[in-house]
Amino acid sequence: MKAMVCTRYGPPEVLELQQLDKPVPKDGEILIKVHASTVTAGDCEIRSFKFPVLLWLPLRLFFGVQKPRLDVLGQEFAGEVEVAGDEQTLFKKGDRVFGATGLKLGAYADYLCLPGSSAITRMPEELSFEEAATIPTGGMNALFFLRKAKIQAGQKVLIIGAGGSIGTMAVQLAKNSGAEVTAIDSGEKLDMLLSIGADNVIDYRQEDFTANGETYDVIFDVAGKSPFSKTINSLKPKGVFLMGNPSLSQMFRRLLPTKKGGRKIIAGAASYKAEDLRYLSKLLAEGKIKPVIDQVFPLEQLRQAHYYVESGMKKGNVVIANR
């Protein structure tokens, strides 16, 4: 089978198209013919190994010292079940499915084996493989954090870094909760954010949201780049600050008391569950959320796709199609 292999840590040139053996499902696993995957910022971080200094050694030991131990990257996919292994009753041959690979990775290939109990579910009939592949990582991360905030109808929600895979899902999920949503990103992404339901948009290059006097019930910093103290001061007294990708300094600051009591600061890593993906699938089928696709690249052009994602220009998702 074709696969894009990460031969070492470094720039996108380390990704090479190779022929690998087709995997064979074990008991409890399914073999999936991958039709589409995506490139996320996380994929680029693993490939380049650009992590904070204090995380460098433990992550190097986990992912591989000289090169990635799991050398086929890719964290989400959509495809068809080709073989359902013994002792696996959730899926059958021919099922159109989408899901997340978790730390197993492996979506940048023609085929993928995963336990049937993984974060996988059947696709809504209306969706293409390219559309479905964009949902798992962004959708489950956004759902994880927004549920922590327990958003109520009428609340004001600010989403910083709203133009990516997690942010575009967060905008739509917050709107479905009845919130008034303000989305922050670069100017070229603002029209797209309005089109998916944002009530207000801010170009971070032109306006400092901490200086306009607005306060919010929930602030979700997807990218982890907002100034901590000023962001906290933009919260209402009982507001919630969700840190989606906090820096080490932000993690330290969250342990310190804030100026006004009652505010909550929440960080963490999303857990991927099939039941959450089924919930997102239901919202998709009902038209309450929709995929946001910027560009589609063939698997053979994965290097170019990684360069594009690292440029910071992508609107929503960049899809990789296995054709």
Automatic annotation (TrEMBL):
SMART domains: PKS_ER
Pfam families assigned to the protein according to its UniProt record, in alphabetical order: ADH_N, ADH_zinc_N_2
Organism: Planococcus shenhongbingii
Domain Enoyl reductase (ER) as annotated: residue spans: 10-320
Domain of life the protein comes from: Bacteria
Record's signal peptide: none
Protein name as it appears in the record: NAD(P)-dependent alcohol dehydrogenase
